[in-house]
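Hey, can you fold this one?
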Amino acid sequence: MVLAALYMGNAGLCPSLAAQASPGAKSALVDAVIEAHGGADRISGIRSLRLEGMLVAVNGGNHGKLYRISQGEGTLSMMVEYPDRIELRILEDGRGWRGDGPATLAEVQGPLLGAMVLQSARAFLPMVLADHRDDTVLEHSDSTTAVLTVTLTPELSLRLWMDPDTHLITRSESILAAGPMTIAFATDYADYRMVDGVAFPFREQTFAQGVPTASTLIESVEINPEGPRTLLPIPEAR
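Sure. Predicted structure:
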């Protein structure tokens, strides 16, 4: 798999701040972020999430009904029902499939697979942060923003922005390598609401290379839903 996540530059952040931050400061911030999103006990009890909402693509203004199931980092099942087509994505055990219907699902590699891996990690960031506490670095913290970098694998990292007052995650960034080129991805999170004691963003705005790509308005979130772990059977298991 061709995948590398690097850090996006920001003139307002000094790289030396990461070295200056104490382990205690990082641990305190991670604790505060986890607590703000529902607390360690509730977050550790999440085995799966099912979200439904409306996705509006910036290019062409296409809109579609979104269904997304995640069991955490490395798994994803997503369907978008547009008026004229369906988009399907499945990620399981390091393998991914995409298509415009059950009969057309095809396995993907390289950047397309890498994008799905990143998407699965972004499905519920506090869970990822809790699972990778020891692999997290505090880059910056002041009265206006706080930034953590989470290393998921040697090849994959996420940079997270937090509101310094609420400690809710407001932005994630990563860069995907596609051969000699790189693609910068970012997601802004807003409109947090409590679901069974856990805070979820009900509005997401995604970007590629700094250009807005889609807006997602979440309509419902279900924690540990009953039913299958994917919207469709894994292709080779049919």
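The longest strand covers residues 181-195. Let me know if you want another pass with a different chain boundary.
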